[in-house]
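Chapter summary example.
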Amino acid sequence: MTTVHAIRFHETGGPEVLRYEPVEIGDPGAGQVRVRHTAIGLNFIDTYHRSGLYPMPLPSGIGLEAAGMIEAVGEGVRGLSVGDRVAYGTGPIGAYSEARVMAADTLVPLPETVEDQTAAAMMLQGMTVQYLIRRLFPVQPGMTVLFHAAAGGVGLIACQWLKHLGATVIGTVGSPEKAELARAHGCEHTILYRDEDFVARVQEITKGAGVPVVYDGVGKDVFDGSLDCLSRRGMMVTYGNASGPVPEISPLLLNQKGSLFLTRPKLQDYTATRTELVAAAEDLFDVVGRGIVKIGVNQTYPLAEAAQAQRDLEGRKTTGSTVLLP
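The structure predicted for these 326 residues follows.
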C-alpha cells in the first residue's frame, strides 16, 4: 500500500468541510492503472458534490478531472504503459488526490501539443463545450447564440470555438473586466446581466428574431429570461446551476413560448462509450493543439488549499480555468 494525500469530505456543507488527509492506495487490479497526478482541475460541479446538491455516499473524495503520469499498470490493460501522460475529465470522483488507482478506459493519452496543466484545466470544461456545440445542438456558421457566464472556464472555451465555427456569440458576464475578457476570446456582444435587461439586449441585437439556442450554466438567476431570448422552436440547454437550481417548469410553458425544446444534459451521457470519450477528447485536442482554442489557466492553488480555491470560485473571484497542484 502507498500513502498519499487527498481532499475528502465527511459531511456536506461549505468549503470548510473539505479535509486534506492521508489515504492509502494499492496496486492496480485487472483493467486498472495507478496515476500520479501532476495537475487537477477545479470545476463548479465539485461544489455541488460538496454541498450535497448532487448527493453521494460519505465520506467521499472530490473532483472529476486531472492529468498525470501512469506509474503502474494492471493486468489486461492495452494501449497504456508506465510513463505515459494521460488525462481524464469524466471522473470517477476523487481527482483531488496526489495519486489514485482507476479504470484504464476512463483515461485518454495526452498528445505532445497539450501540457499537463492545460489538460487538467480543460478536460471536463472542454469536452462539455464539445458536446454542447458540436453534438447536442450542432452550431452552424452564421448562427447567433447566447452563452451565459461567457468569461468562465466553459464560456471562454466556447466563445473561441464558436467563433471558429462561424457563429456570433452573445455572452452574459458579471463585470466590465469579465466583459473585456470574453470579447478578447471571441464573444462579439457582451451583456452585464446584473445591470442590464439581457432579454431586451438579446432582442435588440437579433432585431427581434431571438436566438436558436441558449447555453446556460448559471441556472436560477437567468433561466426564465433565457426562454424569452429563444426564437420559435429554439433549444434551451441548461447544463449547470451556478446561481442555484432552476425553478420547476410546466411543459405547457414551452408550448406558449414558441414550441421550445428544453434539455438538462451531462457530459457523462455524451461520453458513455469509450468511442464517444476518445472522439470528444480528440476533437478538443485538435482545436487546442492548433491554437484555435487557448486555455487560460488563470489561477493555481496547492492541493491542500482546495477549500480556498472553491471559496474563490463560488465568490466569482476567478476567471478562466483554475488548477490545483499536488
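To summarize the output: The chain has a mean pLDDT of 95.
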